[in-house]
Amino acid sequence: MTRWKRGRRSYSGSRDSYLWNERDWVDADAADDDLGDDGHPFDDGEPAWLLPPRPPRSIAPPVTLGWQHQLDRIAAALRPPIAAWPAGRTIDYVIALPDTRVTGTVALDVGCRQRKRNGEWRRLTTFRLSTPEIERLPDPTDRRILATLFGDGGGYGTAFPRSARPGWPFIRYQIPATLLDPVLPLVLGTGRAALQIALGQGHEPTPVTWDDGPPWAFGLDVRATGSGRHYEVTGALSRGDERIDLSTPLLLLAAGLVFFPDRVARLEVGGAFPWISHLRQVGALRVPVDQADQFLAQLLRTPVPPGTRLPPELAYETVEAVPRPRLRVQRGPARWPPELLHATLAFDYDGALIEAGRPERGVLQLKPRRLMVRAPEAERAALERLAALGVRERSSPTSEGPRALALSARVLPRLVRALLAEDWHVEADGAVYRRAAAFKVSVTSGADWFDLHGTLDFGDTVAHLPALLAALRRGETMARLDDGTYGLLPEEWLGRYARVAGLGTPEGEHLRFGRSQIGLLDALVTAQPEIDGDALFARARDELRRFDGVVPLDPPDGFVGRLRTYQRDGLGWFRFLRSFGFGGCLADDMGLGKTVMVLALLESRRAEGAKKPSLVVVPRSLVFNWKQEAARFTPGLAVLDHTGTARRPAGTHFAEHDVVLTTYGTLRRDALHFKDVEFDYVVLDEAQAIKNAATDAARAARLLRGDHRLALSGTPVENHLGELWSLFAFLNPGMLGAASALGLDGGAGRSPDEETRTLLARALRPFILRRTKAQVAPELPARTEQTVYCELEPAQRRLYDELRD
């Protein structure tokens, strides 16, 4: 008996032969059936490329060849290789169904078969090929199959070969799911594939082919039993009009294959293979009829196989709803850092809540019966949005159950504002945050006041304007509502209304504005036309807007001289202000005769029989000028010079005069006396003297009591809008509210935003009259030395006289 060792060439006597086998030793006599008639394996002549190459003993030194020999070598390399695979030899494939059932992956046995000289097939034997040898196989299908199984299949993976069991005459490949689609149809399409259904005597492999039709679909059959007390749940496979019981196939694989005795087809599992596995074992489930709703709800939490059939009484509607994210924030667990908050995310599907991370496919609603199917892309987008806002996961995203999210406490305000703007439901420590649905504003009028009503609608509750502004003054962006929830103050509303609304006085559920603030309310309503106002307010607005149509007035008879047209317009503007009871600032350029216009006004008040004197406050340098101009243009006015140390205390003797002339210094010193005297007009000349609201002069001016107020200043604002606030705090007390309400205090007053400038320009336009010399140039006389001299201040005139002399 001759023996050969596994995996190498062995020689015995004159017998130069070899045998490849998976056994360590093979009985050569027992293997004679696989030898040719001359005693050599596969007696048609074994190709040399199947023999393991013998390594060279040494490397010969390179030999320089002539060009003829070099061309011969190139030509030999260019000749096509001689086919080394003998005729009559085939590669056969057998699917081992028992092992496939155990492992869940296709067990493919590959063997080689050779015809004998008498035409019969020899027994299958194993063989091994290298990659270059596979490329020389004559059948392109075999080349593709073996190259893929060998690991050169275009990146699908490798099916590692191994022996199936001792003595098994095949090489076994466990084909992974990634290789089934490219390999199995090729294998079954060769016509050399078989199915080993069972092991043992009498169970020879039977031919099997590839069914290239549509895939079979698995589904459930739910039907009532004959007694009507139970539902029976079984499985079925369907394809087109064909439907078969789940027990019919030999084997079904989760990889998407169904095995019949003579063919293999594709299977559409639809994620329901556990159903297939379970029903193939138990046959059927029985569900009591009175538990049908619970059964259906539990069934629909997971993907329902597409071929499922339900009785009419269990039918449901599938709805693909858009989820509304719901974020709940609370204090973190004790083991978390104290600055971290804990958050959980859920999704509201039309009233049905599903927590993020849960495996349920959807939620079943019973009345009406419908399945709210989840939207995984929308849920994923919500998690990504939270991550962008600084929320981080504290647990593995692959774990089932609610996701544990964490965020820093300082991130919460910005997070809430952003999410409410995107229509999320947000709550923190049990308090729900709401977004305003609508903002309504209206104005009602009284005798000398206007009430601004405003409400933010938060669904089933509203917040009134005073409460909203109180929250705003506290630096909050949320307002606590009557039902305990928190309403987000919308940024759009803050930008539109907060500044103007902050100028009013809270009165119950509205804000009250004085009559002098009609300009501000008019500016607000003009900017926001959706605000409703009553008839009185509308009429007041119309009268205010008639500022552009002020009627010029002639000076009274007691006035000596002639007023130019623009000066007569000034007298008309004075009457316009008086009709409303407003104060105003005459801001004409220097040299346009502001003093003369005021003297004409005071003369007209004397002619009209005013019962109270008027007060004119001027810098000390202008006292003489005012007395001189009054004597020249209004000689009928009784002017009292209330300056100097010889002056009498301010008091009742003022009534003996038409005009009381004093200085800012005297006003400061006599403030306590002046505040008790009532005047017809209070006029401040060079009113920039009170531009700083914190000075004694500005405080004393605000204490003065006058029916009408005027300020004269060519520069009402020089450096800061706070100067304008100080001026109007005298002219129309309370009109601009607190300086901080419009941002006119501090550094903001030097460079106010565009919105503040626009608002002030519109609100104050009727109360400031300014003409430049360029505007009224046609009415001005030619400039001479005399006119220039008259325009100079008294101190400048004295200096001019000294220089001229």
Question: What's the gist of this structure?
Answer:
The chain has 805 residues and is α/β, with parallel strands linked by helices. A hairpin with an 8-residue loop joins strand 5 (161-162) and strand 6.
Show the helix and strand layout.
Elements: E1 3-5, E2 25-27, H1 67-78, E3 89-96, H2 97-103, E4 106-114, H3 131-134, H4 140-150, E5 161-162, E6 171-175, H5 177-188, E7 193-196, E8 206-207, E9 209-210, E10 216-224, E11 230-239, E12 242-245, E13 251-253, E14 257-259, E15 263-268, H6 273-282, E16 285-288, H7 292-299, E17 317-320, E18 324-331, E19 340-349, E20 352-355, E21 362-366, E22 369-373, H8 376-388, E23 392-393, E24 405-408, H9 412-421, E25 425-428, E26 431-435, E27 438-445, E28 449-457, E29 462-464, H10 465-473, E30 478-480, E31 486-488, H11 491-501, E32 505-507, E33 510-514, H12 518-527, E34 532-533, H13 535-545, H14 565-580, E35 584-586, H15 594-607, E36 614-618, H16 623-633, E37 639-641, E38 659-663, H17 664-669, H18 671-674, E39 678-685, H19 696-703, E40 705-712, H20 721-731, H21 754-764, E41 768-769, H22 785-791, H23 794-804
Parallel strand pairs: 3-7, 9-15, 10-15, 17-22, 18-25, 26-31, 27-34, 35-40, 35-41, 36-38, 36-39, 37-38, 39-40
Antiparallel strand pairs: 1-2, 3-4, 4-6, 5-6, 7-8, 10-11, 11-12, 11-16, 13-14, 14-15, 18-19, 19-20, 19-24, 21-22, 23-24, 25-26, 27-28, 28-29, 28-33, 30-31, 32-33
Helix pairs in contact: 4-5, 12-21, 14-15, 15-16, 19-20
